[in-house]
């Protein structure tokens, strides 16, 4: 690569979907070279989490990347997908075998207090693993710009803080969440859902959108806003509980959070000029009484599927301005 050519980097854990491809497309638009990594990082999974069952689809991922790269070979106005990095765990952790225990041994990057809030409260080693593997990847690739999706909003805060605090010579770009037509945020874990749970999984974005609608109507008290989400959730839970086991899809709410957009600390009152980060997580429970021929998803519906999502609460003028800007800048999928 020439000295003045820029490098964009998209770190992934594979099981690529349109959300990942949107990040790569944005990186191609803004850089001469794009590097993509595929590595399922064990240190961001807790001891009892789904590391062993996480979807690993390297052959199909590489096929998608080759197809996408071919679209840019003859277009001199855009960058190129130059390399795909698929390291082994020995490559990434050449010393001690990585630990997923809270007090386990190893060389880790910790970003506190951000890593202990929200997702971190439920998954105490998650952001330690994310920060550690990203620090390693950034050191290996040396990118000018790294690309992350807004769906993992807290992750973007942690990575930005790490880049700032450790004076890393890279820029963090956050790209809007890519969604299915019914609003469900695209995620590699969606493959686990199957038809029954997939239908109910939209309850999270419906709950978050209810809060946003309440905020747009003038409500600012945290309790009043979160009540809008709770109403949607309780209605769906009541509906599912009323169905026979072979038809229902039950779920549990991990959290619904209304947080300060600078610190991610919980808010009792939203300043309309400042807004808030509204986020949540639910666990879709294993399918009961799967029926013959039913689409139960990867893992036959036996795995609990944890889904996250978020929205920004903004003043209506700011919301419309940002939406229009995104519509102009987001590549067509």
Structural class: alpha/beta
What's the end-to-end separation, in Å?
Answer: 29 Å
Question: Which percent band covers the strand fraction?
Answer: 15-25%
The spatial strand order of the largest sheet comes to 3-2-1-4-5
DSSP, total strands:
8
Helix content: 25-40%
The global form is globular
Q: What value does the average pLDDT take? A: 93
Task: Tag the structure with descriptive keywords.
3-stranded antiparallel sheet
Commentary on this structure:
By secondary structure, the protein is an alpha/beta fold. The protein is 35% helix and 17% strand. It is built from ten helices and eight strands. The chain has a five-stranded parallel sheet, with helices on both faces. A three-stranded antiparallel sheet has the order 6-7-8, with helices on one face. The mean pLDDT is 93.
Quick recap:
The protein is an alpha/beta fold. 35% of the residues lie in helices and 17% in strands. Strands 3-2-1-4-5 form a five-stranded parallel β-sheet, sandwiched between helices. Strands 6-7-8 form a three-stranded antiparallel β-sheet, with helices on one face.
Compile the SSE list and pairings.
Elements (H helix, E strand, L loop, with lengths): L6 E6 L5 H13 L2 E6 L19 H13 L9 E6 L3 H4 L26 H4 L3 H16 L3 E5 L3 H13 L5 E5 L18 H7 L2 H14 L5 H20 L9 E9 L16 E9 L20 E9 L2 H14 L4
Parallel strand pairs: 1-2, 1-4, 2-3, 4-5
Antiparallel strand pairs: 6-7, 7-8
Helix pairs in contact: 5-6, 8-9
